[in-house]
Amino acid sequence: NTWRDRYVVASYPHWSGLPGIYAVVASEEGTTVTLTPSATGGLVQAGAGVAANGTGTVMLGNSDVLQVMTS
């Protein structure tokens, strides 16, 4: 079951000139998403509570989607 509370995301930083991307979908109202990149994580496009270094905390509502893209 993927509706749990801890995940690891693997993503290429860039591929053929396109940014890497991952998405988080909330299953319920008031879902808190805390982003903690690895030591080798690259820069991402900052916004919506996500810093350029990939860290951040974002509050999502039911069925909201957070997309994080490399920069």
Distance between the termini: 31 Å
Strand order of the largest sheet: 1-2
Global mean pLDDT? 87
Uncertain residue segments: none
Biggest sheet: strands, sense, closure? 2 strands, antiparallel
Q: Could you tell me the strand content as a percent range?
A: 25-35%
Give the structural class.
mainly beta
Helicity, as a percent range: under 10%
Pattern of helices and strands: EEEEEE
Shape: globular
User: How many helices does DSSP assign?
Assistant: 0
Q: Can you count the beta strands?
A: 6
* Gyration radius over CA: 12 Å
Describe this protein's structure.
This protein is mainly beta and 71 residues long. It contains no helices and 6 strands. The protein has strands at residues 14-15, 18-19, 21-25, 31-35, 56-60, 65-69. A two-stranded antiparallel sheet has the order 1-2. The radius of gyration is 12 Å and the shape is globular. The N and C termini lie far apart (31 Å). The mean pLDDT is 87.
Describe, in short, the structure shown.
The chain has 71 residues and is mostly beta strands. It is 0% helix and 34% strand.
Sequence-ordered SSE layout with sheet pairings:
Layout: E1 14-15, E2 18-19, E3 21-25, E4 31-35, E5 56-60, E6 65-69
Any descriptors?
single chain, 71 residues, mainly beta, two-stranded antiparallel ribbon, two-stranded antiparallel sheet
